[in-house]
Amino acid sequence: ALQEKGSTFLQLGSSTEQQLQVIFEVLEEYDWTAFAVVTTLFPGYEDFVDYVEVLTDSSFIGWEHRGVLTLNLTDDPEGTRLRRQLREVSAQIRLLYCSREEAEAIFRAAREAGLTGPGYIWFVVGTNLGGSDQLPE
User: Fold this and answer.
1) What are phi and psi of 96, to 5 degrees?
2) What whole-number distance in Å separates Cα of residue 125 and Cα of residue 121?
3) What is the per-residue pLDDT for 3?
4) What pLDDT, on the 0 to 100 scale, is given for residue 100?
5) Which of the residues 8, 36, 45, 119 could staple to 91 if both were Cys, CB 3.0 to 4.6 A apart?
6) Domain Receptor ligand binding region: where (predicted)?
7) Number of domains present in the structure of the chain
8) Which residues does 106 contact at the CB level (< 8 Å), separation at least 6?
């Protein structure tokens, strides 16, 4: 369960579940009910997908879950397939679960595909994204 609002943001290395609970509170607050899930094959991605379903299925809010895109980043050095797959996601709100290195490749492809400007909102969830001076653009 969440402590009072806001305090969870300060918990370093908070679990994926806590991160998702906070994200869903933000989505609810702004009435952003349509979203898609984007994951890589990073360990724990199945649990991430399952937990998103638990949060949306058990909610009285009419979430519009627009599906799960699972990316396989191998054998795509130019990011051509990645750009095409990211363009096929219909929701402007995207919940991304991946490793830090994968996030850099995904955001590079998303930027090249025009999916990072105004109107696109990405929430990145993961256990290993913090603790670095360099954040992906």
Assistant:
1) -110, 130
2) 13
3) 40
4) 87
5) 36
6) 7-125
7) 1
8) 38, 40, 71, 73, 82, 86, 96, 98
Question: What pLDDT sits at residue 127?
Answer: 64
Q: What is the pLDDT of residue 129?
A: 64
| DSSP assignment string, 5-72 | TTGGGG-TT--HHHHHHHHHHHHHHHT--EEEEEE-S-TTHHHHHHHHHHHHHT-SS--EEEEEEE--
Q: Report if residue 44 sits inside a domain.
A: yes
Angstrom CA distances, 98 to 1, 70, 71, 75, stand at: 24, 10, 10, 17
Assess if residue 5 is contained within a domain. no
Q: What is the pLDDT of residue 13?
A: 47
CATH number reported for the structural domain that contains residue 48 in this entry = 3.40.50.2300
What pTM was computed for the model? 0.83
The span from the CA of 34 to the CA of 93, in Å, is 7
Q: Which domain covers residue 110, as residue numbers?
A: 23-125
Q: Answer yes or no: is 57 within a domain.
A: yes
Mean pLDDT by 10 residues, the chain (137 residues): 39 71 94 96 91 90 95 90 95 93 92 93 79 58
